[in-house]
Amino acid sequence: MAHHEITFPVTDPAAILKLRAGDEVTVQGHIIGIRDRTQIRIFDQGVEPPMDLAGAFLLHTAPNVRKVAEGRYEKICIGTTTSARMVRFTEGLGAQYGVRAICGKGGFPDTAIEPMRRLGMVYLA
């Protein structure tokens, strides 16, 4: 097991390709929270992401909010969420948008591993 420090967005694919299962990774730079609803908008409804995702580190999130008025919500907290629900978006995030790392909880099923390997992506938990 090795320890790596990686700054996101990644500009050098070698930073990701050297990682191995069991390695520890310290993440620096930008972490972008993404939830299932956002990915549905991107891939099922054709709405482009609101920012450049090239080289990005995405965190599968489940934000909690409280309604404070009609159409207004207050942020309470943001935590990680189960990644397995979002497997169908993984290949597109890498192939179309250049995402390099995804972090969440619960792991990814084997169906996500081959596209991630082929596209130079990594899953962190």
Task: Give a structural overview.
The chain is of the alpha/beta class and 125 residues long. 26% of the residues lie in helices and 34% in strands. The chain contains four helices and seven strands. Strands 3, 4, 5, 6 and 7 form a five-stranded mixed beta sheet that branches. The chain has a two-stranded parallel sheet with strand order 1-2. Helix 3 (87-97) runs parallel beside helix 4. The longest helix has 11 residues, at 87-97.
Q: How would you summarize the topology of this molecule?
A:
Blueprint: E1 3-8, H1 14-17, E2 24-29, E3 32-34, H2 36-43, E4 57-69, E5 72-80, H3 87-97, E6 101-103, H4 110-119, E7 122-124
Parallel strand pairs: 1-2, 3-4, 4-6, 6-7
Antiparallel strand pairs: 4-5
> In DSSP terms, counting alpha (H) and pi (I) runs of 4 or more, how many helices?
4
Give me the Rg, rounded.
15 Å
What class do helices, strands and sheet pairing give?
alpha/beta
Low-confidence stretches: none
The termini sit apart by: 15 Å
Tally of DSSP β-strands: 7
Strand content: 25-35%
Helix content: 25-40%
**Rough outline:** globular
Main sheet overview: 5 strands, mixed
The string of secondary-structure elements, in order, is EHEEHEEHEHE
Task: Kindly report the average pLDDT value.
Answer: 93
